[in-house]
Amino acid sequence: MTMHRCLLACRPVVLLLVAATGSGISAAEPTALPFKPSPVPGGVALVPIKGTGTTPKVTYRGEPVLLRRAAKGWVAVVGIPLSAKPGRDTLEVGGHAVSFTIKPKRYPEQRVRLDNQRLVTPNPEDEARIAKEQALMGPAWKARPEGVIPSLSFGSPTPGALTASFGMRRIFNGQPRSPHSGLDIRAPQGQAVRAPAAGVVVLTGDFFYSGNAVFLAHGEGVVSLFAHLSKVTVKQGEVVQAGDRLGEVGKTGRATGPHLHWSLSLNNARVDPGIFLRSHP
Question: pTM value?
Answer without folding.
Answer: 0.83
